[in-house]
Amino acid sequence: MTGPRVSGATGRTDVSGPHGVLISGENRASVRELRPAVFLDRDGTLIVDKHYLREPDEVQLMPDAANLVRKLNYMLYPAIVVTNQSGIAQGLLTEADYDAVRRRVDDLISERGAFIDQHYHCPHHPDFTGPCGCRKPGTVLYERAVVEHAINPAMSLWIGDRWRDIAPALHFSGRGILVPTAETPPEEIEQARAQCEVAENLLDVIHHLPGR
Question: Does domain 5-24+37-207 have CATH number 3.30.70.360?
Fold first, then answer.
């Protein structure tokens, strides 16, 4: 089974950090230097969910997605995308397909004056590659991001359209906001209302960012 993928370099981990995450010498930061971040789901949150998207030309930003990312850039909060891409394990798309779509997302965001700090994705599916820790709501990719971007997860925000996207906020004592779409199961909306937060849309999220 191949491991989780990240667009960017990683460092050696050897020092304990927040929530038991290991931090390497080159990535080490004091608690005072750690900063909040915003973890964004991709499909159904940043872009319209086309299900196993492999064609860059089909990428369509969700309303106010670029405005949200631009606001995060302005606030100096790392905007980090974490996405499950099980279509890779299922043979429905390739790593090259995923990377082409990722670049298109970055281009569309950049054209609107904003940028994503980093993308992480899990290419696995339990029925095809066995269990893994990086498939959301698993926390492996978030732990990696915490190390690589000197993040305080307890001060961070998770945003997505499914419960699995925001459930890791509970593990890290952070803040989760569900932004439902027509495909969000009602029981997940109720679970988010009980344990996290629910926003009507991304514009609503912008209005409730800390320190706005």
Answer: no
Place of tokens 């803040």: 175
- For 6, the token pair is 């990240």
Active site residues: 41, 43
Residue of 212, 199, 211 lying closest to 40 (CA atoms): 199
Residue with tokens 């369509």: 60
Interval 124-157: pLDDT, tens? 999 999 999 999 999 999 999 999 999 999 999 9
43 DSSP 8-state letter: B
Tokens of 198: 């629910």
CA-wise closest residue to 35 among 51, 18, 21: 18
Contact 33, 150 (CB under 8 A): yes
Q: Which two tokens stand for residue 50?
A: 């086309």
The full set of domain ranges for the chain reads: 5-24+37-207
